[in-house]
Write a structure and sequence with these properties.
Blueprint (H helix, E strand, L loop, with lengths): L2 H6 L5 H17 L1 H7 L7 H19 L7 H21 L5 H13 L3 H13 L9 H23 L5 H22 L1 H6 L7 H5 L5 H10 L4 H21 L11 H20 L13 H22 L15 H5 L11
């Protein structure tokens, strides 16, 4: 986190500044596409986005890191500890964990509905035990907590030009679209973790099952049936992008270039997958650097236009505070839950 961003956000406490800086490092290291888009936000909004992403990244790593040799019991215990830390941080506004400290401060500043964090943790916990989804409806149920709520958490930070309730369905869809894109890109890696996020009924419609995916992953060979199933999942994902798209115009003008850039870059991953012949079981598709640069330049041009038209700076404002303490509404009394994008 640069001093300018923290100053612009009105974050003066040294401990809090350090916590936000830690979250920014997580974002820069783990989410290159997302980090690039975040740089297109006004400086005063970036710390909050880094805090939200930093927490999601940390929680996701507990469950998904391929380098971690922790047992399922140890991962469950780590999630329990994180849930307790989060509950306390949201209730008191303080935490010894930098990521939770920054998240709690962001939640209070922007009055983010604590239920979104509760649903997120529940989805994360599910990932410890659920390894596949029979139908797309089942997958969407899971993605409410793992992806849709991420869009809903972001919305108060981004700001809207319409009543927030009008923009919320589109924000939720965009979170889902991003995660569906990740699922398609990471089919091979997820399979190595023992999970298949492509719905079983979609796979079966093309004569594919988990064993067929495993065969392709292990042998390095393609199967036209798998390619057709992946193409069908791509089409489904593009439909969700179309549902999300109208929400961009509902955002505060100075926030639109960031989300538009993320939209273009993430949907571009689908193009990269198709261009690579749907080899996602064997390698990860990447948006070419020149394409990323072009999107960044376009985003900068849009920022300049928005700031000339609507003003270069905007004060940090938060909605009316919640009627109940954040921690009390969160309701995490005992066991943890789980996931993120």
């Amino acid at each position: 986190m640069t001093a300018r961003e923290l100053d612009a956000a009105g974050i003066t406490d040294p401990t809090l500044r350090s916590a936000y800086t830690h979250c920014r490092r997580l974002n820069a290291r783990h989410g290159k596409t997302y980090f690039l888009a975040t740089r297109l936000l006004p400086a005063h909004r970036r710390p909050a986005v880094h805090a939200l992403y930093g927490f999601a990244r940390w929680a996701d790593d507990i469950v998904d890191s391929l380098d971690d040799r922790s047992s399922p019991h140890e991962r469950a215990a780590a999630l329990e500890e994180l849930a307790a830390c989060l509950h306390s941080g949201l209730r008191t506004g303080r935490s010894s964990e930098p990521v939770v400290q920054a998240l709690a401060d962001t939640a209070q500043r922007y009055a983010i509905d604590p239920r979104h964090f509760h649903d997120f943790m529940k989805a994360m916990h599910d990932d410890l035990t659920v390894t596949d989804y029979p139908t797309y409806a089942d997958l969407r149920g899971y993605m409410h907590g793992s992806a849709a709520v991420i869009g809903l958490q972001m919305l108060p930070v981004l700001g809207t030009t319409v009543p927030r309730t009008e923009a919320e369905p589109h924000a939720a869809d965009l979170g889902v679209a991003f995660q569906l894109t990740n699922f398609l890109r990471d089919v091979g890696e997820d399979l190595d973790r023992g999970r298949v996020y492509l719905p079983a009924d979609l796979l079966a419609a093309h004569g594919v099952d988990r064993d067929r995916l495993r065969w392709s992953r292990d042998s390095g060979r393609q199967d036209p049936r798998i390619t057709q199933a992946l193409r069908a999942f791509e089409a489904l994902t593009r439909d969700v992008y179309r549902q999300a798209a109208p929400g961009i115009a509902m955002l505060a003008p100075v926030s639109r270039p960031c989300i538009r850039s993320a939209f273009v870059l993430y949907s571009g991953i689908l193009d990269a997958i198709a261009d690579d012949g749907y080899h996602v079981l064997h390698r990860r598709a990447v948006v070419p650097r020149r394409r990323r640069a072009a999107v960044a330049v376009d985003g900068l041009a849009r920022i300049l236009h928005a700031r000339i038209r609507h003003g270069a700076t905007q004060p940090v404002t938060a909605p009316n505070p919640p009627t109940a303490p954040v921690g009390d509404a969160f309701g995490l009394a005992a066991p943890v839950r789980r996931e993120a994008a």
